[in-house]
Design a protein that fits this description.
Length: 153
């Protein structure tokens, strides 16, 4: 991979990766760590979208959903979330912060590639840092702070 090639050239390298497909990652995270490549990742089985939707305050989740609805006017975002929720999404799902709803929103975001375009990813980052002080003791904040420390070192 590029990270291994850059490390072989003597460069200081970091990898930021999801944890939802660890068994398919080549080289593995352990292989990267064995080569002294720093790995920043999410809680077990989480993509970045899932981790972010798990960690952000509910008001931020709603802000991101409103943004995505404007970005994808032809897509019924509620149906996307509903399909990941086992089709039992409560009518008031936007008003109630529930773990299963967060899981469904994160999965809909991942599978729908809501934030895969650069400008949408930038908006996601903007919202994360807008609410950064409200996500204490969360993996998103822990990993982003560690990444910031790595960049600043």
């Amino acid at each position: 991979t590029r990270a291994m090639k850059l490390k072989a050239l003597g460069k200081d390298v970091v990898v930021l990766c999801d944890s939802d497909k660890d068994d398919k990652l080549v080289p593995s995270k352990q292989d990267l760590r064995d080569k002294q490549i720093k790995v920043f990742d999410w809680e077990s089985n989480n993509s970045i979208e899932q981790q972010v939707f798990n960690d952000l305050p509910w008001e931020a989740v709603i802000e991101l959903l409103q943004y995505i609805e404007k970005e994808f006017p032809e897509t019924n975002i509620e149906n996307s979330v509903k399909s990941k929720h086992g089709n039992h999404l409560p009518d008031n799902w936007r008003d109630v912060d529930a773990a299963q709803t967060r899981l469904a929103v994160g999965e809909a975001a991942r599978s729908g590639e809501w934030f895969k375009r650069t400008y949408r990813g930038e908006f996601l980052g903007f919202v994360i840092f807008k609410y950064f002080q409200k996500i204490m003791n969360k993996k998103t904040k822990e990993q982003l702070n560690a990444l910031i420390d790595w960049v600043d070192a």
